[in-house]
Each structure stands twice: as C-alpha cells, then as structure tokens.
C-alpha cells in the first residue's frame, strides 16, 4: 500500500515565478524545499524543531502583517504551514546567502530579547506580547531517567512548601477579632502614607478569618474591607522574597496588587457551588450579578466581566491549591518593568521557577494524559493573566481611598 502524500494549499499569493509572503517580504530562497521569506524562515524552524505550541485568543482570525507579525504567533505559524515535510535534518547544508542568515539572527535576537529565555526554553504563546517562559523539567534529560526523576522530586518538594505556605497565609487569623470589628487605627489617623502601610500593614486591615462563602450581599464597607484584607494577604506572600530590595517590593505591590486581588477573588469564587451569583469577597459577602441587588450600580460591567472572563474559565480549569499558589506568585512577578535591573532579573527567575513547579505538578496530576492533552490546559492558565490585565484597567475608583493610603 503506497503512502498518499497530503498537499497543503499555499496561503501565499504566487505571481509568475515570483513568490511573495502575505507580510510583503520577498522570498529569496527555499525553506525545506519550499519558498519562504527571510523573516518567517527562522520563526518556522524554531517552532518546528522546538515543538512549540501556540494558541490564538481569537480563534485563528488574526491579521498578520509585517509590522506586527508576532502579535499572534499561532496565526503566523498557520500561514507558514504550506508543506507537511517541515521537520528535516539540521545538518543539511544550506546554500543560502549571508544576508538570509543575518535576517535569521535578527529574528532570533528579537524573539529572545522579548522572552528573556535561553534557546532551550519552550514558550507557549497566548496570542499576545505577554509571554512567560518555562522549561520542561524533563527537557534535556530524556537520556537520563535518574536526572529526570531527581528534578521531578525537586519540584515536588518546592510545590509542597509553596502549598504549605499558601495554607498558612489563608488560615492566619486573629481569633479574637470579628470580621466586622473596626480597624485598630484611630479615626484621626485613618489615612496613612504608603511607606507606613507597607511596613505595618496590620494598620490597613484586621487579620480576620478568610471566608469566601456568599453568606450575605456586600455593601460598600464590605467591599472596602475585602480589598484591605487582600492587601495584607499580598504583603504576607512577599515575605519569602526578601531578595528584592525594599524599593522594588513597594513598586511591585503598587503595580501588581490589582492582579493579585482579582486572581485570588476569582479563584475562590469559582469554587463555590453556584459561582453565577456574583463575585465573592473574603469576608463572607458577595457582590451580586443582578443589578437590582447591587449596593452601587456596576457602570463599567466589572462584575459581569469578572464572572464571564475570569471565574468561568477558572471553574473549567478546576485548579487545585498548588496551581493557584503558583499562579498567585506569577501574577505578582511577571511584567515588572518598573523595577530596578536587579529586581527585573529576580522577577524573571521567580516566574521561571514557579512555571517549572506548575508544569511539573501538571505532569504529576495528569499522568494518564499525554502532552497533547495537557498543553492546552497549561496554555489556558497563561491566558488568565491577559484577563487580569484587562480587569485592572477597568478600575476607575481610587484604590488609595479604599486602602486608606493617601499617597497610593
């Protein structure tokens, strides 16, 4: 029985004997036996050889142009699939000119400068410029089962410590303080500077018991208390990361507090029996979806967006506590361009480490599934950070007034 070869129609226009990419780059040579433009050659090769998985946020409808071809790499790679014989030996000598190689190097440098990761780090693109690099715990260890097992145990221990710390923070509460007790700060000094709030965060909120069950409808005071209690939670999460300078820690809290708050709120809302009631707060109250029950009108549609774009996907992912612990840390440390150079480097290290912990935990949790089934779930986790960015932009109120910090 002879093998039938599949022929993929080319998405690129061919005029006469001249080939031209849809990104308007001329093709001066061939790539794996087919015509290819300079810019796409290196991208296509890296995607195939490194087995990179891309996911489009807009169901494959992105318009790929030369000026912003990396906005969605899933759609860009789809345009490159014009021949199924893509993977060939790297040792085959190329007859291309030096200019072609220069274009490849520029493309390599451009991509690596964005990801900040070495070539062996596999990237999952979520259809945007927000990238978080991770390295498979088994990558580079395929020929050494002992080394792979040792690395797996290493990340399992890391995951256990992270989970224990997460539970310690969530269970940390003053049993003698009721959720509706007034703040310990006298009324005449309720507004505090950020420096004081950062060092003595107990002045922002009492250490009340965390309760995300929707027991009653929230009023304005309940909403404010939820934000203040989450501020204390985030400060406690930063305690293990004392390598960051004090200035960088303060910048990080200001820049990433929105993301941390919405992620932990969305996660625990997704775990209740009926998450469609609205958004749950950590003091046993909830903000309802029904406009008739809301204490203040949701003019920006924040609650509806939170339920549809954050709570529902989190519920479908069925995250466990280890996974949300990793995601909470990553939500604080990714995209911290306002930090110092040392702080940015440390943030990348923290993100990479916790992505590896998350990846290893997924492998252990879904041992009966192959990589093709696990990778999409891992990609959807990364899409959560895009939702957090969008939600943070909808915050129209002054967070400093909510947190009682006059110079936020």
Keywords, separated by commas or semicolons:
2 domains, Retinoid X Receptor, mainly alpha, Erythroid Transcription Factor GATA-1, Chain A, 408 residues
Would you spell out the secondary-structure blueprint of this structure?
Layout: E1 14-15, E2 18-19, E3 29-31, E4 34-36, H1 38-49, E5 53-54, H2 73-80, H3 98-115, E6 124-125, H4 145-171, H5 194-199, E7 211-217, H6 220-237, H7 246-270, E8 278-280, E9 283-288, H8 302-317, H9 321-333, H10 341-365, H11 371-393, H12 399-403
Parallel strand pairs: 5-6, 7-9
Antiparallel strand pairs: 1-2, 3-4, 8-9
Query: What is the level-2 CATH architecture name of the largest domain?
Result: Orthogonal Bundle
Which ranges are low-confidence, i.e. pLDDT below 50, for 5 or more consecutive residues? Answer: 1-25, 82-143, 181-189
- The count of helical stretches stands at 12
Helix and strand pattern: EEEEHEHHEHHEHHEEHHHHH
**CATH superfamily membership of the largest domain:** Retinoid X Receptor
Shape: globular
Helix content: 40-55%
Distance between the termini: 72 Å
Alpha-beta content class: mainly alpha
CATH class of the largest domain: Mainly Alpha
Instruction: Characterize the biggest β-sheet.
Output: 3 strands, mixed
Number of strands: 9
Provide structural commentary.
This protein has two domains: 15-125, Erythroid Transcription Factor GATA-1, Chain A (2-Layer Sandwich), CATH 3.30.50.10; 145-403, Retinoid X Receptor (Orthogonal Bundle), CATH 1.10.565.10. The chain is mainly alpha-helical. It is globular, with a radius of gyration of 25 Å. The longest helix is centred in the middle third of the chain and has 27 residues, at 145-171. The chain is 48% helix and 7% strand. The strands form four sheets. It has a three-stranded mixed sheet. It has a two-stranded antiparallel ribbon with strand order 1-2. Residues 1-25, 82-143 and 181-189 have low confidence and may be disordered. Keywords: DNA-binding, Metal-binding, Nucleus, Receptor, Transcription, Transcription regulation, Zinc, Zinc-finger.
């Amino acid at each position: 029985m002879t093998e039938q070869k599949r022929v993929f129609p080319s998405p690129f226009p061919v005029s006469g004997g001249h080939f031209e990419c849809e990104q308007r780059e001329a093709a001066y040579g061939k790539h794996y036996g087919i015509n290819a433009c300079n810019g796409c050659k290196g991208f296509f090769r890296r995607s195939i050889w490194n087995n990179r998985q891309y996911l489009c946020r807009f169901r494959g409808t992105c318009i790929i142009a030369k000026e912003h071809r990396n906005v969605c790499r899933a759609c860009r790679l789809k345009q490159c699939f014009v021949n199924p014989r893509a993977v060939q030996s790297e040792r085959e000598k190329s007859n291309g000119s030096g200019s072609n190689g220069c274009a490849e190097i520029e493309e390599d440098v451009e991509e690596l400068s964005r990801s900040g990761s070495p070539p062996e780090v596999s990237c999952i693109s979520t259809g945007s410029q927000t990238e978080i690099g991770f390295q498979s715990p088994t990558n580079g260890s395929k020929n050494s089962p002992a080394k792979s097992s040792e690395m797996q145990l290493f990340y399992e221990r890391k995951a256990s410590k992270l989970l224990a710390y997460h539970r310690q923070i969530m269970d940390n509460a003053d049993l003698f303080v009721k959720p509706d007790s007034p703040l310990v700060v006298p009324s005449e000094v309720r507004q505090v500077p950020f420096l004081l709030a950062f060092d003595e965060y107990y002045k922002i909120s009492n250490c009340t018991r965390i309760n995300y069950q929707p027991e009653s409808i929230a009023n304005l005071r309940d909403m404010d208390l939820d934000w203040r209690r989450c501020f204390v939670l985030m400060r406690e999460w930063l305690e293990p990361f004392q390598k960051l300078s004090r200035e960088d820690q303060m910048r990080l809290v200001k820049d990433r507090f929105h993301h941390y708050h919405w992620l932990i709120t969305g996660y625990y809302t997704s775990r209740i029996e009926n998450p469609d009631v609205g958004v749950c707060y950590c003091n046993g109250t909830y903000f309802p979806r029904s406009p008739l029950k809301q204490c203040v009108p949701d003019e920006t549609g924040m609650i509806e967006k939170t339920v549809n774009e954050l709570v529902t996907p989190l519920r479908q992912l069925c995250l466990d506590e280890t996974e949300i612990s990793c995601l909470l840390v990553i939500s604080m440390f990714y995209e911290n361009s306002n930090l110092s150079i040392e702080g940015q480097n440390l943030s990348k290290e923290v993100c990479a480490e916790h992505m590896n912990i998350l990846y290893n935990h997924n492998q252990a949790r879904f041992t009966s599934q192959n990589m093709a089934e696990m990778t999409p779930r891992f990609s959807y986790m990364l899409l959560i950070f895009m939702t957090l960015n969008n939600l943070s932009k909808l915050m129209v109120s002054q967070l400093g007034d909510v947190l009682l910090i006059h110079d936020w």
